[in-house]
Design a protein that fits this description.
By secondary structure, the chain is an alpha/beta fold. The chain has 11 helices and 10 strands. Helix 3 links the parallel strand 2 and strand 3. Keywords: Signal.
Length: 274
């Protein structure tokens, strides 16, 4: 496979995309319904989970198990990783077809997608951003991540491979654990690194066309040990969006490293729906 080392500009763009591995790091039994989850009235909302770059829907496995144990309907579609507009179009129809209230939850690059979907999808009651970008109209992921120091993404940790749609971005295998899954079991991280999915480099220069509506409640998890997206960037964007913020001592791979923290924030969003 022919590698092409990323330029600094492309590397900054990669940082915008960052998603961690789908490492099944937490194998514990799903927790029972919390008080917050039990407080929700009416039918439980469908929890829609959107993954980010370099991963697939299996990155949510530990979160899905817990939610399903609590009888939440869950939908975790595959994201093509072909760019924001293309990815939104790919999943929009299936999400629209879900009846009743929906909570959109995103990890990393997926935050760009739910920000767009929020103004186009009916019955969205809340947005949950898990170590994710929270953009405003006209911004790009690369721009957002370059505003703050802290990301270790760069030409020494990433590479691009030519493809039919343009260069696809990968994280170097030897850098994967450090960037995304620091502290998770090494074998799990190695499996995720081997199965990572590329994302088009152009996705990170693509401008977001709409800001998530102000009347939709927002929640954000800031991963304080994130080396992919700067925790400072996550915190700034969450504060700007007036999101309720939960800080978790976690690497970028929050759904794998601390799935219960994700479920707890989803409980908050579900408890106050409507």
């Amino acid at each position: 496979m022919k590698r092409k080392i990323l330029s600094m500009a492309a590397a900054a763009a990669v940082a915008a995309a960052l998603t961690a591995c789908g490492t099944p790091g937490d194998q514990s039994t799903p927790a029972p319904v919390s008080a917050a989850g039990a407080a929700a009235t009416g039918p439980k909302p469908t929890i829609v989970l959107l993954h980010g770059a370099f991963e697939d829907a299996s990155s949510w496995n530990q979160v899905v198990k817990r939610l399903q144990a609590e009888s939440y309907p869950v939908f975790a579609p595959a994201v093509p990783l072909r760019g924001v507009a293309a990815d939104v179009s790919s999943v929009e129809g299936a999400i629209d077809a879900i009846p009743g209230p929906k909570i959109l939850v995103a990890h990393s690059y997926g935050g760009l997608l739910i920000s767009e979907l929020a103004s186009r999808t009916p019955d969205v009651t809340a947005l949950v951003f898990v170590a994710a970008f929270i953009p405003q109209a006209g911004e790009t992921a690369g721009q957002l991540n370059s505003q703050f120091p802290g990301s270790l993404i760069g030409p020494d940790t990433t590479h691009a491979v030519s493809g039919p749609d343009g260069p696809g971005l990968y994280v170097n295998t030897e850098s994967f654990a450090q960037l995304f899954a620091d502290g998770l079991p090494a074998p799990d991280s190695a499996v995720s690194a081997a199965g990572q999915r590329p994302i088009l480099a152009s996705a990170f220069d693509e401008e977001i066309t709409s800001t998530a509506p102000a009347n939709i409640r927002k929640y954000a998890i800031v991963a304080t040990r994130d080396k992919a997206i700067s925790p400072e960037a996550e915190r700034f964007e969450a504060q700007r969006a007036h999101a309720a913020i939960t800080e978790v001592e976690s690497p970028h791979a929050v759904p794998a490293a601390n799935p219960q923290a994700v479920v707890d924030v989803i409980h908050q969003a579900a408890a106050t729906q409507g």
